[in-house]
Amino acid sequence: MSSEEFEKLHDVYRSLYDELRLMPDRALRSHGEERKRLVRSFDERKGEAEEVLQGMEEELRSAPSSHRNAMSTKLRMYRRDLGKLEREMKNSAPGFGSSSSQPVEGSHHGIYSSQNQHSTHLQSQRALLLQGTESLNNASQSIERSQRIANETEQIGTDIIEELGEQREQLDRTRNRLVNTGENLSRSRKILRAMARRLVTNKLLLGVIILMELAILGAVVYLKFFR
Questions:
Q1: Which entry of 11, 80, 166, 183 is 20 to 30 Å from 134 by CA?
Q2: Distance (Å, rounded) from C-alpha 145 to C-alpha 165?
Q3: 64, 3 contact by CB (below 8 A)
Q4: Using alpha carbons only, how large is the chain's radius of gyration in Å?
Q5: Burial class (CB in 10 A: 0-12, 13-18, 19+), 71
Q6: Does any domain span residue 7?
Q7: CA-based angle 173:175:178, to the nearest 5?
């Protein structure tokens, strides 16, 4: 997760850097209060960028070892680019970075008080930004866990449906076999009844034949011995 947080801070830094890199040229073309305003704005954005880089360094320490080299290279490149922009701003605005060494009578305390208040406000904004980023990260993790559980549940449901379908097919095949067995038994009973009838008929015919032979034999004996 540290590498993901690093990428989020990277996006924030890129946004600040894109804003900072336009200021030296603008300061070079401006004068008076407009230049002072650009200098103050550059100071503020540079401080925010340094805070973001500090957060990236913290993420770097807890990042997986497989990502550290690339992350460290990016961080060094960002610090180098930020220092280059600061030098360009000093060249574009000669008074940049030296206003604190030129105090104005009666306004020294007010300038530093305003700077302290502004710094406190920036720190509060950065804290809120980091807190919001952490909350967003936690929410993303929760959504990922919920989605993973939903996918697992869906897979289990699909497996159960497939298993029930297979069991239904097996029951259908068993029922068909039972129906076929019942039909075969019915045909077997009919065949057995027909065979039984034929057996009884054969026995009756055999009895009649035996009786007829006995009658003929008796008649022959009678005619031969008694007449």
A1: 80
A2: 30
A3: yes
A4: 52
A5: buried
A6: yes
A7: 110
Model confidence pLDDT, tens digit, residues 36-48: 888 888 888 888 8
pLDDT in tens, 181-197: 888 888 888 899 989 99
Half-sphere exposure of 226 (CA within 13 A, CB side): 6
DSSP secondary structure letter of residue 96:
T
Report yes or no on 122 lying in a domain: no
- Which residues are CB-neighbours of 1 under 8 A, at least 6 positions away? 137, 141
Nearest-5° Cα angle at 78, 77 to 80: 65
CATH number of the domain at 52, please. Answer: 1.20.58.400
Structural domain harbouring 89 = 2-95
Residues in the chain: 227
- Sign of the CA dihedral 91, 97, 102, 103? positive
Total of domains in the chain? 1
**pLDDT tens-digit profile of 15-40?**
888 888 888 878 777 777 888 888 88
